[in-house]
Design brief:
- This protein has 185 residues and is α+β, with helices and mostly antiparallel strands.
- The protein has a single domain, classed as Hypothetical Protein Pfu-838710-001 (Beta Barrel), CATH 2.40.320.
- 24% of the residues lie in helices and 42% in strands.
- It contains 5 helices and 8 strands; from the N terminus they run E-H-E-H-E-E-E-H-E-E-E-H-H.
- It has an 8-stranded antiparallel barrel.
- The relative contact order is 0.23.
- Pfam families: CYTH.
Length: 185
C-alpha cells in the first residue's frame, strides 16, 4: 500500500468574501459549496497519539462522514504529513465504535468550508470561530504558484492545525480550552 502524503498551508484572511474574491481572481473554480464541518479528535486517556503528534479524526461534512489518521508533521515551510482517510457511513457510530476501542473525543471543533480548484490544487475558504483562513493543498509547486497569485508569500504560511490555533486563541484570551463551536443561537 502506498503512503498518502498531505501537503498544505493556511493563509489568514480578514473575511470570507475577501478570500473568495482573491481565489476566483487567481483563476480557481468553485468545487464544493459552503457547508458546516464538525470535527471530533479522538485519543486514548493517556494521549499516545498527541504525544506522537498524530491525529485520529471523525468528520461530519454535510451529509458525508470521514475517518482520518494524520501522522506527525515533517520539517519544512509547508505542513507535510501522512494522511489516511476513508468515507464512513455514520460519524456518530464511528465515534461510538472508537470509544469501544478505547478512544474518546478529546476535542471538537467546527468550521464552514467552501472548496475551489485550480488544476490539481484544492483551495478552501475556512470560516472558523477564530478567523478566516485559505487552505492550499497540493504539490509544493502548485502551492507556491497560488501563493504568489494570491499576492502572498511563504512568510504568510500558517502550518499549525486548527485545534492548535483554537487553543492558542483561547489561552491568549485567558479562557478555558474547550470545544470550539459556533454559537447555537
Amino acid at each position: 500500500m502506498a503512503v498518502a502524503v498531505e501537503r498544505e498551508i493556511k493563509l489568514p484572511y480578514a473575511d470570507p468574501n475577501t478570500a473568495r474574491r482573491a481565489i476566483l481572481a487567481a483563476g480557481a473554480r468553485p468545487l464544493r459549496a459552503r457547508r458546516l464541518q464538525d470535527d471530533f479528535l479522538l485519543d486514548r486517556e493517556t494521549d499516545p497519539l498527541r504525544e506522537h503528534h498524530c491525529t485520529l479524526r471523525v468528520r461530519k461534512d454535510g451529509g458525508q462522514a470521514l475517518l482520518t489518521f494524520k501522522g506527525a508533521q515533517m520539517s519544512g515551510e509547508m505542513k507535510v504529513r501522512e494522511e489516511l482517510e476513508t468515507t464512513v457511513g455514520d460519524a456518530g457510530l464511528i465515534v461510538d465504535l472508537c470509544a469501544r476501542l478505547g478512544f474518546q473525543v478529546q476535542f471538537r471543533y467546527q468550521k464552514y468550508r467552501e472548496e475551489f480548484q485550480r488544476g490539481r490544487l484544492v483551495i478552501t475558504v475556512d470560516e472558523t470561530p477564530v478567523g478566516t483562513f485559505v487552505e492550499l493543498e497540493g504539490s509544493e509547486c502548485d502551492i507556491l504558484r497560488m501563493t504568489t497569485d494570491l499576492r502572498r508569500s511563504p512568510s504568510d504560511f500558517v502550518r499549525d492545525s486548527y485545534p492548535t490555533l483554537f487553543k492558542r486563541h483561547a489561552t491568549a484570551r485567558g479562557s478555558d480550552v474547550s470545544d470550539l463551536l459556533f454559537d447555537a443561537s
